[in-house]
Write a structure and sequence with these properties.
The chain has about 425 residues and is an alpha/beta fold. The chain contains 16 helices and 13 strands. The chain has two domains: about 240 residues, Rossmann fold; about 180 residues, Rossmann fold (3-Layer(aba) Sandwich). A seven-stranded parallel sheet has the order 3-2-1-4-5-6-7, with helices on both faces. Helix 6 links the parallel strand 5 and strand 6. It is globular and about 70 Å long.
C-alpha cells in the first residue's frame, strides 16, 4: 500500500473538528488530530478546528503549530475555566511527581464528570454556533480524551442535525488512569458515554480491544457501527528528517515519550544494569536515550543504579528533533502495561523503520510487532527477558543484521491513507 495521491474534488465539504488538545500543545495526544486536518483537504474536506485558547500545559511545540499554519487550517480558539487555564501565563508547566499526579487526578475525578475540561463545554458550544452561522458544517468530528469533547459534539449534533463521528483515542470507562471515587461516578460516566454513542453516526477506535469493550457494554450498537482507524505516522516527517551521526561502535536504544502511572523505566534500567554486570565490556558499547519530560525520581533511579555514563536524558524535544533522534537510533524501546491504549510512539517507531523492543502485555501491540517482524516483545516487568533482548539486539548490531520492519506492514499506518479512510467515512455519512 502506498500513500494515496491527492485528489482534486470539484467542491470541498466542511467538517468541524472538536479537539481540546491541539498545537501549540505538544506530546502525542495532538498528533492524530493534527495529521487528519493536515491531509483532509486532499480528499475534499475542509476542516475547521475548535480548540482551547493557549493555556498551561506540560509541553509546547511550535513546529506543530507551524505545520498547521502552512496548510492554512482554520482554527477557532475558545478560552476555558479548567485547571490548565490557571497556568496559561506560565505556558509550559513542569510535570508533577507521580504521587502528586495521582492525588490531583483523584480530586479532579471526584468533582468533575466526565473530566476537568467540563467548564470548556458551554463556551465551546457558543463559539461553534457562531461559526455555524458563517459556515454550514456537513459533519461534526469529536476526538477524545478529554471526553468533554464528545459532550460538545452531542450538543451540536442535537442542534444542527448533522452526522457526528466520535474518535476514541483511548477508552472512556476503562481508561487505565481514570478513578471512580464511588459507584455513582462510574454510573454517571457510563450514562454520558451511552448518550454520546446513541447520538453518533459512526464511532472510531484506534484498536480492536477498545472496539470490543464498547460493544460489550453497549448492546444497542452493531459491529458495523464502530470502525478501527489505527494510529499512524506521517511519511513527510520522516522524509524531512535527518539523522545525526551515531557514535561508532556504540548501540543506541531510545525511548520517546512520557512515563506516568504504572509506566516506568525502572525495569528497563534494572535490565540494563544486569547486562552491564554480566558483561562489563558492553557498558562502553551500549547507550540508552530518553526523549521527553522525565521525572526527578527517574533521574535518581539512574544515579542509584550507576548508569549515568550510559544513559542520556534529552528532555522534551519538538517533533522534528524527536524524529531525528529516532532515525539516529539503532533500537527503539517502549513500555505499556495494558492492552487498551494505543500509543502513537509504536507507529512512529515503525515509520522510522527501526527494530522495536516492546515491554508490553499480550494484545494488539505484540501482534503488530510480530506481523511486522519488527523486534522483540516481553512482559513489562520481566527484567531477565529485557536483558536477554538487549544482548540479542547488540549481537545483531555487531553483525550488522538488526531487523527492519516489513514495508508492507509499515505502509498500513501511513497517515495519508488513514486520512483518506476517514474522508470516505465522512462521505458515506453525507450521501
Amino acid at each position: 500500500m502506498t500513500a494515496s495521491a491527492p485528489t482534486e474534488p470539484a467542491q470541498s465539504r466542511s467538517v468541524l473538528v472538536i479537539a481540546y488538545y491541539f498545537p501549540p500543545m505538544g506530546l502525542s495526544g495532538v498528533q492524530r488530530t493534527l495529521k487528519f486536518v493536515k491531509y483532509l483537504p486532499q480528499f475534499g474536506w475542509e476542516p475547521t478546528v475548535l480548540t482551547v485558547s493557549p493555556t498551561g500545559y506540560f509541553a509546547e511545540d511550535n513546529t506543530l503549530l507551524d505545520e498547521v499554519d502552512r496548510h492554512r487550517i482554520a482554527i477557532e480558539r475558545v478560552g476555558s475555566l479548567d485547571a490548565n487555564s490557571f497556568f496559561r501565563k506560565k505556558g509550559v508547566v513542569k510535570m508533577p511527581s507521580e504521587r502528586w499526579r495521582k492525588f490531583l487526578t483523584y480530586v479532579s475525578d471526584m468533582f468533575f464528570v466526565p473530566d476537568n475540561k467540563l467548564l470548556w463545554r458551554k463556551r465551546a458550544v457558543k463559539a461553534a454556533e457562531a461559526l455555524f452561522k458563517l459556515k454550514t458544517f456537513d459533519v461534526i468530528f469529536a476526538t477524545a480524551p478529554p471526553f468533554t469533547d464528545f459532550l460538545i459534539g452531542v450538543e451540536l449534533q442535537r442542534r444542527w442535525q448533522r452526522p457526528l463521528v466520535l474518535d476514541y483515542r483511548d477508552p472512556w470507562i476503562e481508561y487505565p488512569f481514570k478513578y471512580y471515587p464511588t459507584p455513582l461516578h462510574r454510573m454517571m460516566n457510563s450514562r454520558l458515554e451511552r448518550r454520546a454513542l446513541r447520538a453518533a453516526s459512526k464511532i472510531l477506535t484506534t484498536n480492536r480491544r477498545v472496539k470490543e469493550l464498547i460493544l460489550n457494554r453497549n448492546k444497542f450498537l452493531s459491529y458495523e457501527d464502530i470502525v478501527i482507524l489505527p494510529q499512524g505516522y506521517d511519511p513527510q516527517d520522516f522524509r524531512n528528517g535527518s539523522a545525526p551521526a551515531i557514535p561508532r561502535g556504540k548501540m543506541r536504544i531510545t525511548h520517546a515519550g512520557v512515563f506516568y502511572g504504572d509506566r516506568t523505566p525502572k525495569y528497563f534500567l534494572a535490565a540494563l544494569r544486569k547486562v552491564f554486570n554480566d558483561r562489563p565490556e558492553l557498558e562502553r558499547r551500549i547507550e540508552s536515550r530518553f526523549i521527553g519530560n522525565f521525572h526527578d525520581e527517574h533521574r535518581q533511579l539512574i544515579a542509584s543504579m550507576k548508569l549515568g555514563d550510559s544513559v542520556v536524558v534529552t528532555g522534551y524535544l519538538d517533533h522534528p528533533r524527536c524524529v531525528e533522534q529516532l532515525l539516529a537510533s539503532d533500537v527503539l524501546w517502549m513500555m505499556l502495561t495494558n492492552d487498551r491504549q494505543s500509543p502513537g510512539k509504536l507507529y512512529e517507531y515503525l515509520g522510522a523503520r527501526k527494530p522495536i523492543l516492546a515491554c508490553v502485555p499480550d494484545g494488539f501491540i505484540r501482534q503488530t510487532i510480530a506481523e511486522a517482524r519488527a523486534g522483540v516483545a516481553v512482559d513489562p516487568d520481566d527484567v531477565d527477558g529485557i536483558a536477554k533482548a538487549i544482548v540479542q539486539f547488540y549481537e545483531q548490531y555487531e553483525q550488522e543484521r538488526l531487523p527492519k520492519p516489513k514495508e508492507d506492514v509499515v505502509s498500513k499506518y501511513n497517515r495519508v491513507d488513514l486520512t483518506k479512510e476517514l474522508s470516505v467515512i465522512f462521505g458515506f455519512l453525507t450521501e
